[in-house]
Specification:
The complex is a heterodimer.
Chain A (H helix, E strand, L loop, with lengths): L2 H12 L12 H10 L12
Chain B lengths: L2 H19 L5 H8 L3 H13 L4 E2 L6 E4 L2 E2 L6 E4 L2 E4 L3 H10 L4 E6 L6 E7 L2 E2 L23
Antiparallel strand pairs in B: 1-2, 2-3, 4-5, 4-6, 6-7, 7-8
């Protein structure tokens, strides 16, 4: 992926990590993030 | 206090300490600072590890990773907010910058030739640079060995 995409991924994933209300993303939420960023296909599936 | 509340508070303390001191706190430090027993702190660390919020060194309560932060030096050093930290990978290094305000530099290098490739980020905008990010492990297998990943 481009470095710009990786930055967007890092921001979506971690911007709120220090918030008291932070929680891990569900598998569905995580896959939705990947899809939103164009990270699709077998490589990006979180369920084997 | 429920374990859910304790784990939230321990998680926040761990991350705040990690950022402030650039080192993760031991379970002992956490217990003392939070006024809880060492057993309770260690149990919280274990639950957080089970939930993939922390990665502990095998057989210990020493924190190896509190993603996006790495407790050991990696190929992804991050300079942000006057602190020198390490990301566990490039995604995490960029995440460190995002987590701490959006402005910082990743002192990365090319994986194949070791040429320096600093990534400067200002307000979550990347200074133009040539390069790509490569992921070697498919997503479904990241946690098979998260340290390797």
């Amino acid at each position: 992926m481009s470095i710009e995409t990786a930055l967007r991924l890092g921001a979506i994933w971690y911007s709120d990590k220090l918030d008291p209300g932070w929680r891990r993303k569900t598998l569905d939420e995580a896959e939705a993030v990947f899809s939103e960023l164009g990270l699709v296909g077998e490589f990006w599936r979180l369920r084997p | 206090m429920t374990s859910e509340v304790l784990d939230r508070d321990v998680r926040l303390f761990v991350f705040q300490q990690f950022v402030e001191t650039t080192r993760p706190p031991s379970a002992q430090v956490t217990a003392l600072a939070m006024g809880i027993t060492l057993a309770d702190a260690a149990a919280a660390y274990d639950r957080l590890a089970s939930n993939r919020v922390l990665v502990l060194e095998p057989g210990t309560h020493d924190i190896r990773m509190a993603n996006p932060l790495s407790a050991i030096p990696t190929a992804f050093p991050v300079s942000v907010g006057g602190k020198d930290l390490y990301g566990s990978c490039i995604w995490d290094a960029l995440g460190v910058v995002a987590m701490l305000g959006g402005t910082g530099t990743i002192l990365s290098s090319c994986a194949c030739c070791d040429e320096s490739m600093p990534l400067d980020v200002t307000n979550l905008k990347l200074r133009p640079v040539t390069g790509v990010v490569h992921f070697a492990v498919p997503a479904a297998h990241w946690w098979d060995d998260i340290v390797y990943t």
